[in-house]
C-alpha cells in the first residue's frame, strides 16, 4: 500500500469522524485506515448508502491535499519523517472519556519540522490571566527559548499568547496547536500572532482545514499539546481552567507536570496551587527549575537560589563569630570581645588582626569596632 493511499484514507476518516475519537483510532490500529474507510464507504441501509458513505463519496482527498499544499499546509501522518514520535505515546495513555489515541494525522503550517522539536515544553494556563500570570509566562518562555527549548501552547488569550510572545521575543521557536483548522486562526484577535508563528515556527492542528473550534475540540487538542512536549508547566489556572485538562493528559503520558505558584488569595491561581498542594505537580519558579526536572539524571545540577554575595561570605566561622562580637559604634577591648564570643583572648587577638587586614574592623582608642565594610 502506498503512503499516499494511507494519507488519503486518514484524511477521509478525519473528515467523516470527529478527530480525537479513541474508537476510530482503535479501529485504524486494528484493521488499517484504508480498510476502515472502505468499510464505511460501502455501508448501506435499506434506502441506500448511509450518510457517512455519502459523505465519503463526495470527498476528493487528492484534490484537497493539492489545494492544501498550494496554501502552505501539509498533512503529516504516522510513519512520515516529520511525524513527532511523542504523539505515539497517546496510543498507550489512558483515555479521557471517548477521547484518546494518537491523531490520524496533523495539518502543519510553517517552516519548522515537527520531528526536529527536540526539547520542548508546553506552557499553558488561564485565558483570563492576571498581570502576574502574563509576566510569569513571558519570562519563563523567554528564558527557556534562550536555552534552545521550543515552547508549545494553544494560541489562546492569556497565558498561551504570553508564552508564544515570550519565546518569539527571545528569538526562539514556538508551536501553536489550534482547536480549529490550521488555516483558520482562532481566536481571530490573534490572527497576526498565529500568522507570525506560521512564518517562524509551526502552526498545527488535528482538525482538517476550515474546521471551526468547538468545546470538545479544545479538550481533544489539549492531549496533543501535552504529547508534543517533554513536560508541561501550568503557569496560572483557576479551579475549572481548561489548562487543567492539559495537565491531566501530561500525567496520563507520565511526563513531568509542573506548576508555578500564585498568590494564595487569587482565584486565578487556585487550580495551580491545588495541583502543587495535592502533589500532582512539582513547584517551579524559573527556567532552571524546569530544565532540572526535564534533564536526565546527573546531566544538570540543581541551582540553589541564594542572595547576592556579600564580603562577610568569605569569612571563616570563627572569624564571623569574632566579628559579631565587635560593636558597631563604641570601641571595646579584646577581653570584652573574647567574653562575648566565648573565645580565648589569644584567639580573638589573632582573628582581629586578620579582620583588620581585610578591612572589617578598625582600632580606635585601644579598642575595636566594625567598619562600613562589615555592615554590608
Gist?
With 376 residues, this protein is an alpha/beta fold. The protein contains 16 helices and 13 strands.
Features:
single chain, 376 residues, alpha/beta, Rossmann fold, Arc Repressor Mutant, subunit A, 3 domains, 43% helix, elongated
Report on the structure:
- This protein is α/β, with parallel strands linked by helices and 376 residues long.
- It has three domains: 1-62, no CATH class; 71-294, Rossmann fold (3-Layer(aba) Sandwich), CATH 3.40.50; 311-375, Arc Repressor Mutant, subunit A.
- Helix content is 43%, strand content 12%.
- A nine-stranded mixed sheet has the order 3-4-8-7-6-5-9-10-11, sandwiched between helices. The protein has a two-stranded antiparallel ribbon with strand order 1-2.
- A hairpin with a 2-residue loop joins strand 1 (44-45) and strand 2 (48-49).
- The relative contact order is 0.09.
- The mean pLDDT is 92.
Q: Which parts are unreliable, with pLDDT below 50 for 5 consecutive residues or more? A: none
The Cα radius of gyration reads 30 Å
Give the ordered list of helices and strands. HHHEEHHEEEHEHEHEHEHEHEHHHHEEH
Q: Strands of the largest sheet, in order across it?
A: 3-4-8-7-6-5-9-10-11
- Dominant shape: elongated
- Number of distinct helices: 16
What would you say the CATH architecture of the largest domain is?
3-Layer(aba) Sandwich
Distance between the first and last residues' Cα: 76 Å
- Return the CATH class of the largest domain: Alpha Beta
CATH-defined topology of the largest domain: Rossmann fold
Helix content: 40-55%
| Percentage beta strand | 5-15%
Largest sheet geometry: 9 strands, mixed
Amino acid at each position: 500500500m502506498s503512503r499516499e493511499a494511507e494519507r488519503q484514507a486518514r484524511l477521509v476518516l478525519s473528515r467523516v469522524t470527529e478527530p480525537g475519537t479513541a474508537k476510530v483510532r482503535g479501529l485504524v490500529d486494528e484493521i488499517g485506515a484504508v480498510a476502515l474507510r472502505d468499510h464505511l464507504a460501502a455501508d448501506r441501509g435499506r434506502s441506500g448508502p448511509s450518510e457517512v458513505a455519502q459523505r465519503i463519496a463526495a470527498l476528493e482527498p487528492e484534490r484537497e491535499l493539492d489545494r492544501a499544499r498550494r496554501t502552505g499546509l501539509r498533512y503529516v501522518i504516522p510513519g512520515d519523517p516529520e511525524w513527532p514520535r511523542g504523539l505515539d505515546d497517546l496510543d498507550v495513555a489512558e483515555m479521557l472519556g471517548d477521547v484518546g489515541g494518537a491523531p490520524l494525522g496533523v495539518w502543519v503550517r510553517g517552516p519548522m519540522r515537527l520531528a526536529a522539536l527536540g526539547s520542548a515544553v508546553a506552557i499553558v494556563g488561564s485565558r483570563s490571566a492576571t498581570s502576574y500570570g502574563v509576566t510569569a509566562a513571558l519570562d519563563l518562555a523567554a528564558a527557556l527559548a534562550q536555552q534552545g527549548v521550543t515552547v508549545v501552547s494553544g494560541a489562546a488569550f492569556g497565558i498561551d499568547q504570553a508564552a508564544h510572545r515570550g519565546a518569539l521575543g527571545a528569538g526562539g521557536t514556538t508551536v501553536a496547536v489550534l482547536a480549529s483548522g490550521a488555516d483558520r486562526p482562532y481566536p481571530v484577535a490573534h490572527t497576526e500572532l498565529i500568522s507570525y508563528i506560521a512564518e517562524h515556527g509551526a502552526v498545527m492542528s488535528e482538525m482538517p482545514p476550515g474546521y471551526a473550534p468547538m468545546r470538545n475540540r479544545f479538550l481533544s487538542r489539549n492531549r496533543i499539546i501535552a504529547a508534543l512536549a517533554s513536560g508541561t508547566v501550568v503557569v496560572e489556572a483557576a479551579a475549572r481552567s481548561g489548562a487543567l485538562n492539559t495537565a491531566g493528559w501530561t500525567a496520563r503520558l507520565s511526563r513531568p507536570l509542573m506548576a508555578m505558584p500564585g498568590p494564595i488569595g487569587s482565584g486565578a491561581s487556585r487550580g495551580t496551587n491545588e495541583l502543587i498542594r495535592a502533589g500532582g505537580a512539582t513547584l517551579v519558579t524559573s527556567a532552571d527549575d524546569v530544565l532540572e526536572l526535564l534533564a536526565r539524571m546527573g546531566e544538570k545540577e540543581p541551582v540553589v537560589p541564594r542572595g547576592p554575595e556579600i564580603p562577610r561570605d568569605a569569612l571563616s566561622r570563627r572569624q564571623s563569630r569574632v566579628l559579631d562580637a565587635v560593636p558597631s559604634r563604641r570601641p571595646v577591648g579584646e577581653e570584652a570581645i573574647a567574653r562575648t564570643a566565648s573565645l580565648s583572648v589569644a584567639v580573638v587577638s589573632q582573628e582581629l588582626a586578620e579582620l583588620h587586614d581585610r578591612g572589617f574592623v578598625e582600632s580606635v582608642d585601644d579598642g575595636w569596632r566594625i567598619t562600613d565594610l562589615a555592615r554590608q
